[in-house]
Amino acid sequence: MVKTVDQTKISLIHIAKAQLKLTEESYRSILSGVGVLSSKELSIDGFKRLMDVFKKLGFKSYSYKNRKKYQRQKEINKYVGNQIWGCTPAEKEYIESLWYEKARNKNQWSLEAFIYRIVKKSSAFLNKQDVVKIIEALKNLK
């Protein structure tokens, strides 16, 4: 008797299906290419072949331990990568130019840490007084 996959592997198959945005028709055709009509009929070997197909289509699986790290990184990138600053674009550009001119560690993460150290706020929540404090602190950097 051939051992079939357990519920966690079936769940992973459905996660891959959702992540790849497969239609029911294309999902069924991939399953039939592996030799089954349903994911419940898959053997361990069939599961490995199916996951290889999904990986070739672009599926990336994350273990539970790495999933939290991935989600946290995604949240950080939302604020730092595509950052919405609480000041005008000209002020933002001026702050960044001063930072890249005077700072030792010239990256966005360090700038965000510097801003937080000076005004105890994220750059998304700056007001006019905060911008003045930051500019003065940047001018005083050696």
Task: Walk me through what this model shows.
The protein has helices at 7-19, 24-34, 44-57, 64-80, 89-102, 108-119, 128-139. With 142 residues, the protein is mainly alpha-helical. The protein is rod-shaped and about 70 Å long. The relative contact order is 0.09. The mean pLDDT is 82.
In a few lines, what is going on in this structure?
It is built from seven helices and no strands. The protein has 142 residues and is mainly α.
What's the layout of helices and strands?
Elements: H1 7-19, H2 24-34, H3 44-57, H4 64-80, H5 89-102, H6 108-119, H7 128-139
Low-confidence stretches: none
Helix and strand succession?
HHHHHHH
Percent of residues in beta strands: under 5%
Q: Tell the overall outline.
A: rod-shaped
- Integer-rounded radius of gyration: 25 Å
* Classification by helices and strands: mainly alpha
Give the beta-strand count.
0
Average pLDDT works out at: 82
Helix content: 55-70%
State the main characteristics.
single chain; 142 residues; mainly alpha; 65% helix
